[in-house]
């Protein structure tokens, strides 16, 4: 999936895909394929930086060497783990929303195998981060997670997603986001460890709260009443 679907683009084609994807994603934020295309066509420098950080990290190097995939065939055992574990929390997050780890769109526009894998890994650990930070999948929750993702990876797509998401907020949602979730997300993204260098699947059996402490993760605060 990482190799077979890839498409080579010249400079003008990259610009065209990026602009088209950005416009389409703004019109319909549910189009995961357009958001993915935007991330790939604007994110090469960011993915290269993430790749170098992973190479400097023992756990990151293990991820690059073994190239684990977050698909049900590989992570399905999480559904059988004790309820206090990270794996069980992830399974509960996915099951309660009827999500499947197999639903992520393929990488199409990265021109090396290593960068294609890093882009796919960033896409596939998204729901691990939802679980760890305790964020919902509504517009506010997704926008808050994009703030954290931007601080972790500096992907332009994350910044653009926050702008696009906030443009769709109601006045009440906008006030809640910028007064409550945005400041928390800035602090949480700065405080946590380098989350792209974590081999999450090897920690499924560990206690969720212990891992949050280990990785410096501050869960999202409850919305004010």
UniProtKB/TrEMBL annotation:
Its cofactor is Zn(2+). The keyword Mitochondrion applies. Pathway: Cofactor biosynthesis; ubiquinone biosynthesis. Its EC number is 4.1.1.130. Zn(2+) binds at residues 126-127, 130, 142. PANTHER family: UBIQUINONE BIOSYNTHESIS PROTEIN (PTHR12922), UBIQUINONE BIOSYNTHESIS PROTEIN COQ4 HOMOLOG, MITOCHONDRIAL (PTHR12922:SF7). Lyase that catalyzes the C1-decarboxylation of 4-hydroxy-3-methoxy-5-(all-trans-polyprenyl)benzoic acid into 2-methoxy-6-(all-trans-polyprenyl)phenol during ubiquinone biosynthesis. Belongs to the COQ4 family. This is Ubiquinone biosynthesis protein COQ4 homolog, mitochondrial.
């Amino acid at each position: 999936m990482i190799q077979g679907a890839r498409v080579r683009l010249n400079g003008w084609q990259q610009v065209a895909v990026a602009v088209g994807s950005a416009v389409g994603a703004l019109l319909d934020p549910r189009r995961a394929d357009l958001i993915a295309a935007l991330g790939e066509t604007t994110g090469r420098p960011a993915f290269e930086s993430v790749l170098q950080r992973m190479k400097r990290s023992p756990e990151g190097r293990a991820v690059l060497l073994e190239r684990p995939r977050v698909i049900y065939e590989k992570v399905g055992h999480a559904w059988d783990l004790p309820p206090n574990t990270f794996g069980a929390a992830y399974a509960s997050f996915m099951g309660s929303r009827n999500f499947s780890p197999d639903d992520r769109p393929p990488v199409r526009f990265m021109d090396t195998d290593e960068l294609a894998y890093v882009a796919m890994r960033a896409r596939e650990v998204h729901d691990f981060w939802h679980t760890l930070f305790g964020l919902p999948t509504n517009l506010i929750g997704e926008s808050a997670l994009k703030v954290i993702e931007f601080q972790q990876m500096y992907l332009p797509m994350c910044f653009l997603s926050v702008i696009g998401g906030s443009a769709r907020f109601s006045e009440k949602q906008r006030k809640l986001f910028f007064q409550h979730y945005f400041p928390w997300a800035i602090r949480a993204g700065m405080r946590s460890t380098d989350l792209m260098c974590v081999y999450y699947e090897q920690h499924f059996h560990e206690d969720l709260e212990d891992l949050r402490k280990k990785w410096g993760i501050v869960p999202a605060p409850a919305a004010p009443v």
